[in-house]
Design a protein that fits this description.
Elements lengths: L3 H4 L5 E12 L6 E12 L3 E5 L6 H8 L7 E6 L2 E2 L7 E4 L11 H5 L1 H6 L3 H14 L15 H13 L5 E5 L7 H18 L2 E6 L2 H7 L2 E5 L6 E6 L14 H13 L8
Parallel strand pairs: 3-8, 3-9, 6-7, 7-8
Antiparallel strand pairs: 1-2, 1-4, 4-5, 9-10
Helix pairs in contact: 5-6, 8-9
């Protein structure tokens, strides 16, 4: 277990969650989705969240994004309570949700139109981001002319356009084939290291969670509780060869053992 990430002076708790519970509906028909979640996420870190289907992972992410309210507990982002959407948060979903009639550049620039950024500066930043996600030369293509992995890289660029401090990702590579998914994991690690953002990523894939995460938050079946926080002691940048490292295998086995009788993982 690595404690270095917890003691680095350059990092501080950027997200703090205390006693968070979320119920949908009331009475006998009500469903308790989250139950007493307590955790913190350090600035600049990469946290992955893994758990069985229906355990409340996406509910937790939507609360962090300000897309879903809560009544019990507190959720602080940079010391401020989260109630509603914020400009310092970017979100990437499983589907790229690119507008099919707009070019890739126009799609990446969409947030600038919505929140009223300077369009000249936004275009310059969009081109820089397209370079960072390795989509140079594709800015005038339509989404249908790009592969699924390329579309997701464009959606990541779009989420970063307004320079958020935190990037929330809800199973962004779940619909991709295994080989493309591995390449995207490498790309996402590179983008995170270059951008310095705080990233929180939901996944059903235990290997993906271990490969990408500084820490893995392991959630229980519904009602979702934070069952364990696992620190990953693997050097950066990581290559796919790290999957043969005994520390990688041990971390993955520890998580898998907890869900041997729960929903299947990739």
């Amino acid at each position: 277990m690595n404690t270095t990430l917890q003691t680095e002076p350059a990092r501080s708790d950027y997200i703090r969650i205390d006693g968070l519970s979320k119920r949908f509906g009331g009475g006998h028909d009500g469903v308790l989705a989250l139950d007493q979640i307590d955790c913190s996420i350090q600035q600049g870190s990469f946290v992955t969240i893994v758990g069985p289907s229906g355990c409340g992972k996406s509910t937790l992410l939507r609360i962090l994004a300000g897309l879903l309210g809560y009544e019990v507990g507190s959720v602080l982002l940079d010391g401020q309570p989260i109630h509603g959407t914020r400009r310092d948060v970017g979100v990437v979903f499983q589907s790229s949700i690119l507008l099919p009639w707009r070019t890739i550049l126009e799609n990446v620039m969409l947030p600038a139109e919505v929140i009223g950024l300077d369009m000249k500066q936004a275009r310059e930043r969009a081109m820089q981001l397209l370079h960072m996600v390795r989509l140079d030369g594709f800015e005038h293509k339509l989404p249908r002319q790009l592969s699924g992995g390329m579309q997701q890289r464009a959606s990541i660029a779009r989420a970063l356009l307004h320079d958020p401090k935190i990037l929330l990702m809800d199973e962004p590579f779940g619909a991709l084939d295994a080989m493309t998914r591995e390449r995207m994991n490498l790309e996402l690690q590179r983008i995170w290291m270059e951008s310095g953002k705080t990233v929180v990523l939901i996944t059903h894939s235990i290997p993906e969670a271990v490969f990408l995460g500084d820490k893995v938050f392991v959630m229980s079946p519904r009602p979702g509780t934070l069952e364990r926080v696992l620190s990953i002691d693997l050097a950066r940048p990581r290559t796919m060869d790290v999957m043969s490292d005994p520390a990688f295998a041990s971390a993955a086995a520890s998580i898998r053992e907890r869900f041997s009788h729960a929903a299947s993982f990739d």
